[in-house]
Amino acid sequence: MWNTNRIILGIMLFVLLAIPLFASSYIVYVVTLAMLFSMLTASYDFMTGFTGPLSFSHGAFYGIGAYTSALLTLKTGMSFWVAMPVSTLTVFVFAAIVGYPALKLRGHYFAVTTFFFGHFIYLVLLNSRDITKGPLGLGGIRPPESLFGINFGNMTAMYYLILFFGALMVVFLFVLVNSSIGKLLVSIRENEDLAQASGVNTAFYKVMAFSISSGFAGMAGSLFAHFFRLLHPSTFAWMTSEMIVIMFLVGGAGTLIGPIIGAGVVTFILELMRFAPEWRFIIWSILLIAILIIEPRGLAGLYNRIRGRRA
Amino acid sequence: MEVLFLQIGNGLIIGSVYALVALGLNMIWSITDIPDFAQGSFYVLAAYVGLFAVTLAGLPFVAALLLGMAVGALLAFLCERLLYRRWRERTFRDAARVQLLCAIALFFLFANVANALWTGKPRTFPAYMEGAVFGFSYMRINVLIAAIVLFVIVYLFIMKTKQGKAIRAASMDPGMAQVLGVNIDTVNSMVFAIGGALSGGAAVLVAPLYSVFPSMGDLPLLKALVVVILGGFGSVAGVLICGLGLGVIEALGAMYVSSAYQHGYAFFILILVLLLKPKGLFGRV
Questions:
Q1: Chain B nearest C-alpha distance from A260 (Å)
Q2: Does B258 map to a domain?
């Protein structure tokens, strides 16, 4: 199982490395967005797929990371290379503070609380006009400073930068998931009470998983801010968290590689449906309900089922 | 002093909307374990149906209200019958999660359907009544009165009728109720229909005070979910008190603290209550 995953990831990395060499700039742009969403869904999978609690605040942490990074570079003149780790860490700590009380809740209660938290962050971004410029949007964000003679003002350089950090994050998560910590997290998902009775500090590990996963969302946000260079609160409204959950679900929970592929597939389908902007989310919701009816375990579940039948 | 009085009154009125949506959600959540986000979109669709019934068909307001309630009830009934029921037995591990995601997908779907059909432009719902008393227009007072009447009807239905008894039994222990001869499918259909009717009714009642637009259901839905968690399950009075209380706190907070964060107070209250009293203010979870 893990060997197949390694092969798939290797092929994906190879394809992603090659894309800017021959594809048009539009394709490069779409793939960059897909990679950012892959980062979000893979980190989301670490929390929800491996540890269990269903959360609807990932888009909010993405937004906090984006705004923190953008504001640090704009207001204090900090370099992107400092602002990105700082904003990642900020989101990590912030998620721990929020997660500690919220993760005491189980099941739907946690889900609804995070849903509300996401909306609250959206309100803060929208209403702190003197800091975030609210509904006007925060513009004028600089691209990352040149490093090793590479100018990140052009899109291809930014593409490789995001690919680099995305790959780094995926490797980190894979190592973590396959370590003993990963097994502890899965034990919490499978039976929280039993894990607790067996001596696992479930509260600590849940908060840890939540913070790590949110911290990576913050990192993706920081990359997004300096790639897109314009932030608007509505980018981080509940629709975004919802899309992350959908992509995660399309890919298949608890597989890490499924959500990465899911994010790519969904981004491209949404991009293809751009000709009918009002209808694309309708088609999309119907598709989601159909997936829930046919195979609630997503693409990974479908893959396993087909393979199981052949064997 | 007069401003304070007005704000408390307005808080009670918007609070009664939260309470109405929350009552249906509470019944659905406690019996089927589904936080039915789709109620937020039945709210929107019922408001549009009510609007068109008044403006296009020229029906009186009461007819529009009943029509809105019927549409809400029908949609909720169909969603339960065609979708949620598939996963009722919860034969696989993620079934609870699938139901929640299905609810959110439906919310997403209907919100976008409303947006595609009728555009995002807010529409005005014509006033159906003139005049005011103590600074409150009759239309505002009607919302509160209608909410209380609906609450009493639902309360009597739950406490005094045989079907109501079945609902109460199912909310305590669905498995045991089934063993004792309660038809759980009928109970589910019933609570979803009641929930849809209450959401639809709340929407048409409040539509003349504000305007009708596709995302009008978002905030009432979020507040109602908070009210359900705060009020605890299985308590009709708890829902009413928490709903009205939340409305008043928001109205006063908007006046004395900051109106920009009017819709954020519910979040603070939720976190505070969950930290101090994880089982909600009333009843059991």
A1: 19
A2: no
